[in-house]
Automatic annotation (TrEMBL):
Gene Ontology MF terms in the entry: endonuclease activity
Superkingdom of origin organism: Bacteria
Entry annotated with the keyword Hydrolase: yes
Alphabetic keyword roster: Endonuclease, Hydrolase, Nuclease
InterPro entries: Endo/exonu/phosph_ase_sf
Source organism of this protein record: Mesorhizobium salmacidum
Protein name: Endonuclease/exonuclease/phosphatase family protein
SUPFAM superfamilies linked to this entry: DNase I-like (SSF56219)
Length: 299
């Protein structure tokens, strides 16, 4: 879901008690009726209370893992209480690049361990640095050190790979999802070298060498436990939306095509494709794609 506090014209929902309560009720109904799930991941929330307000019945019947420090665009995971308590709820601060000046510190990662039917399921959520989206765009060149956004995202690559290698150990059931702010499908379909020096991503990243392909660097199947499946994405709203969704996996959509997708009858988001992904580990079998679903309803 995106732009949840904007109406169909992308105007912000009025800051009144009535408008806010109505929007919350719409969110509750949407989550309960359109995307019923056992586990939800949230980005850009202030914390647990905001998550519970968005969930049906004030979040009764759900457990929530979040945090109160770092910046206000925080992460959270909510799951049905019947699944059980969390074994661990862990924030990964290294993804926030704590050595940078505060204005150049992005968001941390979040990891939740759930014991379900005696087996450990680990859910990882990320929200990486924005505005360095696609290798098919000039503004998406990860190796451009003069571009602040790409430079910061480049700095996150080593810590996220270390985090993935650490968090993928100890269980073969891991779900990694969130706003990567990077179009992995464009990277997957590119055939160039992963690094600027052409070296193998299986080896430690040499000093001074930059990464061109974030997905290829982090998910290089080494160690083998980090092998993932990038879930294919579907846009089932209508035939036009589905066609544009598939086209967007291999090429840049025109401004008119993006505008068409943002219409409320289609996906209803200003940036509906290429940012969010779901990846699953070897121990999870899924025959389903990741679906983009629009939020219906005005303010």
């Amino acid at each position: 879901m995106c732009d949840v506090y904007k109406d169909r014209s992308f105007d912000t929902v009025p800051v009144t008690v009535g408008a806010y309560d109505k929007r919350l009720q719409q969110l509750n109904d949407f989550i309960q009726n359109t995307i019923p799930a056992d586990i939800y991941a949230f980005e850009e929330v202030s914390g647990e209370q905001a998550v519970r307000e968005a969930l049906p019945d004030g979040g009764n019947g759900y457990n929530v893992c979040s945090y109160s420090d770092f910046k206000v665009q925080r992460l959270a995971v909510a799951w049905k209480s019947e699944l059980g308590e969390a074994v661990a709820c862990t924030v990964e601060p290294q993804l926030s690049l704590p050595g940078n000046p505060e204005e150049d510190q992005p968001r941390p990662g979040l990891s939740v361990d759930l014991k379900i039917d005696g087996e450990l399921l680990r859910v990882l959520v990320v929200h990486l640095k924005s505005s360095c989206v696609s290798p098919l765009e000039a503004s998406g060149d990860l190796t451009d050190s003069n571009d602040r956004d790409c430079r910061i995202l480049q700095q996150q690559i080593v810590p996220i790979e270390r985090w993935v290698e650490d968090r993928f150990s100890g269980t073969d059931k891991v779900i990694l999802l969130g706003d990567f702010n990077r179009n992995f499908w464009h990277e997957v379909h590119e055939t160039g070298p992963v690094r600027t020096d052409g070296s193998s991503p299986h080896t430690p990243l040499p000093a001074g060498v930059l990464v061109k392909d974030l997905f290829g660097e982090v998910f290089d199947d080494d160690p083998a436990a980090t092998t993932v499946t990038l879930l294919p994405e579907e846009c089932p709203a209508n035939a036009t939306t589905m066609a544009l969704c598939h086209k967007g996996e291999t090429e840049i959509l025109s401004s008119d095509e993006r505008k068409q997708l943002s219409q409320s009858a289609n996906l209803g988001c200003r940036n509906p494709l290429g940012l969010d992904h779901i990846l699953i580990s070897r121990g999870i079998a899924s025959a389903q794609a990741a679906e983009h679903v629009a939020i219906a309803g005005d303010q």
